[in-house]
């Protein structure tokens, strides 16, 4: 997994369960309505394991780790 | 200035042009096939649905290496409430639009065509249905007509694909991109009706003839003759204002419809109505709506009204759009009704930055672009707006 990987959110699937923000506060904060805002930039290597956990934990499978194409927000 | 190419021919008030009249004027669409992609690319034509994406490049991406027959979707949903140009074109010049559709289908080597028309545009629907029945080409005789609901996002290209494929006019998450897997999983071209009508003329007269081209404009607001005008690309806002019978003092112009931007009149008059030139200035021609706000109009209240509309037109699929646009509309409307307050101004600034880019489609982005332009152009009004239910200061009442 290279540092060029990005977190991507399927905005239609996301229902604001907020587990991602709970498990990955370094990269995810919530807006005023409880939906995730992802920190810009590449994912630091030391967080990759936590990112995997967050991706797996999302109850609606809205979070994914993608090779960078377009930056997720 | 006014330059009628798409709208040339019989007077618009005479209704749909017949196939006989169309053929007499222009002859049949030439048999070019895939070589048309090159011609369209050289013409520099950009899409007229709002995004101004180069048409030739879009076709080339679809033509490139797919085994499956693509689908050509003719987009006449025209969800923008102020825009009339697509329905005027479909109603008056149906065969020009259908020529574009058949040329696109043959360039992409497919026989699959679907025409999407907004359900409220009855005249366009009647005209296109009758025109399809008149055509000799089998691809057009077998074309499907799909009615789009009268919703703002129904014309968005992924929503159009979703509608043509499964009857649901809601935007979808990308990827897959529609030029890879769109209607029925096939590569799909979604092209606005005006773009296709331009293709019909470029195929006949060549890329060089097209030059800067023309644009269809819907002039609305403080003008005495609102409606659709065809002007040479690069015509100034002032020329359109005059052609549409504008006489009142105008303080600001809404350029590009509800996904466009407010521009102060002083800066707007000399702007060229050209999709690429406007994009280079960080503006957009969008679907060609140019709205004039007269001197007595209130920029805050007008923006609050539009934001309220855009919030209610969210398809409610993505949280940041559904909740964010409603919150932004409410805050704008509070400033309009109760007067300026710092809390709402701070919220507008923060929320508008947070919401942009966080939807499956670009609905939130368009709404936020409009709002941020209002915050800049009407900055003083947003900062010093008086509550609207308080009367203007009057003479103190004399007691006895």
State which percent range the strand residues of chain B make up.
Answer: 5-15%
Q: Name the CATH homologous superfamily of the largest domain in chain B.
A: NADH-ubiquinone oxidoreductase 51kDa subunit
Structural class of chain A: alpha+beta
Query: Which shape of chain A, going by the Cα principal axes?
Result: globular
How many strands of chain A?
4
Q: Shape of chain B from CA axes?
A: globular
Q: What's the average pLDDT of chain B?
A: 93
Residue share in helices of chain B? 40-55%
Order of helices and strands of chain B: HHHEHHEHHEHEHHEEEHEEHEHEHHHHH
How many domains of chain A, as an integer? 1
Helix content of chain A: 10-25%
Extended strand count of chain B: 11
CA-atom Rg of chain A in angstroms? 11 Å
Provide a descriptive summary of the structure in words.
The complex is a heterodimer of chains A (73) and B (400). With 73 residues, chain A is an alpha+beta fold. Chain A contains 2 helices and 4 strands, in the order βαββαβ. Chain A is globular. Helices cover 44% and strands 14% of the residues of chain B. The N and C termini of chain B lie far apart (63 Å). Chain B is α/β, with parallel strands linked by helices and 400 residues long. Chain A binds chain B through residues 10-16, 31-35, 37, 73, and chain B through 171-173, 317-321, 323-324, 327, 351, 354-360.
């Amino acid at each position: 997994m290279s540092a060029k990987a990005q977190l991507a959110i399927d905005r239609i699937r996301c229902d604001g369960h907020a587990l991602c923000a709970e498990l990955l506060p370094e990269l995810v904060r919530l807006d005023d309505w409880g939906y995730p805002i992802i920190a810009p930039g590449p994912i630091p290597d030391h967080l990759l394991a936590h990112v995997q956990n967050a991706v797996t934990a999302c109850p609606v499978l809205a979070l994914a780790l993608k090779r960078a194409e377009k930056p997720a927000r | 200035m006014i330059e009628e190419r798409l709208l040339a021919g019989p007077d618009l008030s005479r209704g749909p042009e017949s196939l006989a009249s169309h053929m007499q004027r222009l002859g049949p669409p030439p048999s070019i096939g895939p070589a048309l992609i090159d011609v369209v690319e050289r013409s520099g034509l950009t899409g007229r649905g709002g995004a101004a994406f180069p048409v030739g490049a879009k076709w080339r991406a679809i033509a490139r290496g797919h085994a499956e027959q693509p689908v050509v979707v003719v987009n006449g949903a025209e969800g923008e409430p102020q825009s009339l140009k697509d329905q005027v074109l479909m109603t008056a010049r149906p065969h020009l639009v259908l020529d574009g559709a058949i040329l696109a289908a043959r360039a992409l080597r497919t026989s699959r065509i679907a025409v999407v028309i907004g359900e409220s545009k009855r005249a366009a629907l009647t005209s296109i249905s009758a025109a399809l029945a008149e055509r000799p080409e089998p691809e057009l005789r077998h074309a499907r007509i799909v009615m789009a609901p009268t919703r703002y996002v129904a014309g968005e290209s992924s929503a159009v694909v979703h509608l043509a494929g499964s009857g649901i006019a809601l935007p979808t998450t990308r990827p897959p991109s529609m030029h890879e897997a769109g209607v029925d999983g096939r590569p799909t071209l979604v092209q606005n009706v005006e773009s296709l009508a331009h293709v019909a003329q470029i195929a006949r007269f060549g890329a060089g003839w097209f030059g800067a081209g023309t644009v269809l404009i819907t002039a609305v607001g403080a003008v005495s003759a609102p409606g659709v005008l065809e002007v040479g690309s690069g015509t100034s806002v002032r020329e359109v204002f005059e052609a549409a019978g504008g006489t009142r003092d105008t303080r600001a112009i809404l350029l590009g419809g509800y996904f466009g931007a407010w521009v102060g009149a002083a800066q707007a008059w000399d702007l060229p109505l050209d999709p690429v030139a406007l994009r280079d200035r960080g503006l957009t021609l969008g679907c060609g709506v140019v709205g004039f706000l007269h001197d007595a109009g209130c920029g805050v209240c007008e923006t609050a009204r539009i934001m309220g509309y855009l919030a209610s037109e969210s398809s409610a699929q993505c949280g940041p759009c559904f909740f964010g646009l409603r919150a932004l509309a409410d805050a704008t409307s509070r400033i309009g009704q109760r007067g300026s307050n710092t809390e709402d101004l701070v919220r507008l600034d923060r929320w508008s930055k947070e919401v942009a880019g966080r939807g499956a489609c670009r609905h939130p982005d368009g709404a936020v672009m409009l709002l941020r332009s209002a915050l800049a152009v009407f900055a003083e009004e947003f900062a010093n707006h008086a509550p609207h239910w308080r009367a203007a200061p009057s003479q103190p009442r004399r007691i006895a």
